[in-house]
Amino acid sequence: MTIKLETRSQHRCFDGVQGYYQHHSEIINLPMRFSVYQPPQAAANGVQRFPVLFFLAGLTCTEETFMIKAGAQRFAAELGLILVSMDTSPRNTGIPGEADDWEFGAGAGFYLDATESPWSRYFCMESYVTRELRDIILANFPADPERVGIFGHSMGGHGALTLALRHPGLYQSVSAFAPIAAPTQCLWGQKAFSRYLGEFPANWRKHDATALIEAGHRLPVPLIDQGLSDPFLNDQLHPASLETACQKAGQALILRRHAGYDHGYFFISTFIEDHLRHHHARLTSGSL
């Protein structure tokens, strides 16, 4: 894939390279930023390709948040995993009020393709993640197209689950931290979906992990971690709805609940090793 990548910065990290990049997105119609961690094995072997994990961050986050806060590079270096994260929405679109509400607009793309004006012109995060960014990573970094995983947090956990469900075969492993598991049942999802997708709930269900499972979609066995002191647990996240849907549908699910943990990156950093090992095991034929 021919594309002009701007390297914003690179940093040595656990003998690998943490990089930050920018490019003009043909899908978004604006500049987009992403980050990539390449483990030391990538520099040592110029021809080998490595498993790659796409991390989708949550509301208000950027392409930097996960790479700075999660502590994932230490384990990615050990396991030989490439990590990719991207911004959570287009920025500076010129849409009036795009940055007025932290739950919607800038920093809150919800990893879907908007169908409603004016958002549909720029807010096409589903196509960006599953097509354009994927192609950029495979063309410019030593990532193996046959060993691709996806995971995320909160809004990004919603994105990881729904993109894996909506694009069968594209991802071979899936996990999530505190995902918005049933967005049609919570205010975060209802606010975003009504503006991005219109007023018809039937269209919202196409981007709801619980509803997709109920409709017959399936995905690789996901690992989900949820803190029981998460302030958003009861009103916004609804993991029990997803759990019930999976049980009824025969979809295997690993859902772990943790007393005392909240919604933030202290929680994520505590269990990030488990998630990377979950992905590594599935992307390397259970070699761990």
**Separation of the first and last Cα atoms:** 33 Å
User: In percent, how much strand structure appears in the residues?
Assistant: 15-25%
| General shape | globular
Helix percent reads 25-40%
Output the structural class: alpha/beta
Q: What about the largest sheet? A: 9 strands, mixed
Radius of gyration: 18 Å
Strand elements, count: 9
Instruction: Report the average pLDDT across residues.
Output: 96
Describe the structure.
The chain is of the alpha/beta class and 288 residues long. The chain is built from eleven helices and nine strands. It has helices at 40-44, 65-69, 73-79, 125-140, 155-166, 187-196, 201-204, 209-214, 233-237, 239-249, 265-283; strands spanning 6-13, 16-24, 31-38, 50-56, 82-86, 143-153, 173-177, 223-227, 254-258. A nine-stranded mixed sheet has the order 1-2-3-5-4-6-7-8-9, sandwiched between helices. It is globular, with a radius of gyration of 18 Å. The chain starts with 5 loop residues before the first strand and ends in a 5-residue tail after the last helix.
Which key terms come to mind for this protein?
35% helix; alpha/beta; single chain; nine-stranded mixed sheet; 288 residues; globular; 9 strands
Task: Describe the structure in brief.
This protein is an alpha/beta fold and 288 residues long. It has eleven helices and nine strands. It is 35% helix and 22% strand.
